[in-house]
Amino acid sequence: MSFSGKVAIVTGASSGIGAATAVKLAEAGANVVLVARNAEKLKNVSEKCNSFGDKHHVVKADVSVDADARRIIDETIKKFFKIDVLVNNAGIMRLAPVKGDEALAVYDEIMKINLRAVINLTRLASAHLIASRGSIVNISSVAGTKVINGMSAYCASKAALNHFSRGAALELAEHGVRVNVISPGPVATDIIENAGLKTEDINLEGVSIPLSRISSPEEVADLVMFLASDKAVGITGSNYVLDNGMALS
Ligand code: NAD
């Protein structure tokens, strides 16, 4: 699958799914804009992209800060003159029982990054995506359809992301812009550690994984590539579940 000549923005590119997606897009010939807050981790991913040619650009930015979001788009246009693909991957997971004092603060923090930032970047990129008849891939979660005990704010953010994506897909379809969602189940990344948690902190009672495996970030990246490519020309407003069967449990 070639992305030669295409320009792709990947948020949360410093680790996990975003890093794998950025490297695969670079390998496929895209000009990739790597966005994340951690410059040191971004450097590692940038070096991997370099092995496929020096065609990427690093933006150290917090997607939830409006001025940073605008800078992501402005720097992309200044460097590469267009946007073909926007991968809204940056996200955080938090535990926050609804009975707890922190429930509201955690809800605000999660929504700002997992939902509001996606809406803002979609808004800012839309004119450029319309010009290129490009596409958006939003990384949601199986938690957007299946509730996980103690994680209602995270689940709500992903459910809202799914619905926002369908709305954006409908609105942008007349311009030839496609918007799709990927809902992974457990993926081997640092998301739990980055939330300051351990795997055992998450209440997985009643949850099973029929295929008895967890996914690699590269599996998710492969699906991003497919949905962002011309092979998916007829696919918009879809939610691709990649969860080893978890939603069946
Ligand atoms: P990760 O913690 O390894 O990566 C998250 C990335 O997002 C990091 O690069 C981090 O720096 C970045 N990020 C977070 N907040 C940001 C902000 N405000 N501004 C800019 N960058 C920010 O986790 P991951 O598993 O690769 O997560 C990627 C996406 O996949 C998330 O949206 C997550 O909800 C989703 N997801 C992950 C899993 C899983 O099991 N790992 C399952 C379902 C969905």
Q: How many individual helices?
A: 7
CATH level-two architecture: 3-Layer(aba) Sandwich
Q: Count the strands?
A: 7
CATH class: Alpha Beta
Q: What's the overall average pLDDT, rounded?
A: 96
Keywords: Oxidoreductase
Organism: Loxostege sticticalis (Beet webworm moth)
Domain Ketoreductase: 6-185
Pfam families: adh_short_C2
Ordered list of secondary-structure elements with their pairings:
Layout: E1 7-11, H1 16-27, E2 31-36, H2 39-50, E3 57-60, H3 66-80, E4 85-88, H4 103-132, E5 135-139, H5 152-173, E6 178-184, H6 191-194, H7 217-228, E7 239-242
Parallel strand pairs: 1-2, 1-4, 2-3, 4-5, 5-6, 6-7
Describe the protein's architecture and organization.
Keywords: Oxidoreductase. By secondary structure, the protein is α/β, with parallel strands linked by helices. The chain has a single domain, classed as NAD(P)-binding Rossmann-like Domain (Rossmann fold, 3-Layer(aba) Sandwich). It has seven helices and seven strands. Strand 4, helix 4 and strand 5 (135-139) form a beta-alpha-beta unit. Helix 3 runs parallel beside helix 4 (103-132) and helix 4 packs parallel to helix 5 (152-173). The radius of gyration is 17 Å and the shape is globular.
